[in-house]
Structures are given as C-alpha cells and as structure tokens.
Amino acid sequence: MEQNVTNALEKLRSKGVAESLAKMFKVSFGQTHQAYHGTDKKFAEMIISNGFSIKENEKNWFGNGIYFFEWSFSEAQNWAKNIKKFNPPVVIKCIIKYGKSLRLTEESHCKIVREFKLVMENTLRIPIKEPAAIDALAYLADIDTIKGVNVKGNHSHASYRG
Known about the structure:
The protein has one domain (3-161). Helices cover 43% and strands 24% of the residues. It has six helices and six strands; from the N terminus they run H-H-E-H-E-H-E-E-H-H-E-E.
C-alpha cells in the first residue's frame, strides 16, 4: 500500500472507524464452499508446491487477493482458457473456509463500500478506485473473504477473493 494511503488508513483507525466497520460484517466461521481457481500449468505447479501468493494488481475486480469461481469447474476453465489464454489451462479445486466476509452480492455491503470510498477520497483529497477502497476496507475491518459478481460481456463471474 502507498504511504499516503497507509497514513490515511491509520488516521481513520485512530478515529474509531475500524471498530465501527468491523461490527458491520458477519462472521461465518466454519462455513466452507467448494471453489475453483483457473491458472496455467507452471503456476499450478508453484501453487501446489508453495501455496497461493497474493500479488498486488490494480486490474483485480475486488482488490488484491486470490480469485476463485464458485459456480463450477467449467467457469474457471473457461476463464483460464478463453480469457487469460493459458496454454495449457489448469483448474485447481479448493475448499474456501469463511471468516469475516464482505458480500458484494448484498446491497447493504455495496453501500458500505461506496460510502467508505467517499470517506477515503475526502480524507486523502484524491480520487480512489473501487478495488483500492475494497482493499482498505478489508484491512480496517479485518475482512478475509470477499464475494462478488463481475459481469464481462456475456459472462458473469461469481468470485471469491480471500
């Protein structure tokens, strides 16, 4: 995270924003879901050997994280093969264990993100992209799982970031 964003987050934390945010999210410990991660053979081998690693990327839909498709193996395979053009595409089946979740499939959680984004913009006095606001919110509210739907072209993707 950039230093000015980190400073703003610490300012918000000191004002009690983190505690207020943390109370807004349900804790779903123990709930698990089967999900699929599309990648290529080289990365699949690295994941199997070393586990997943999170890399920062401004193009991520819901901020930085590891993305999974909830719906089916074929959604992850389609993404890896036809969207990312991995050759050969590989799909890793995973079990996602929930903790504290931000559910962008619920209007109330989307509203929290929009309002938090405005707070960040007013605090930093610069425009903030939504994925950056989601990352900051997850950091302050100690959220470990984000569920959302991204619509691209004719496809909608249910994804977990965690």
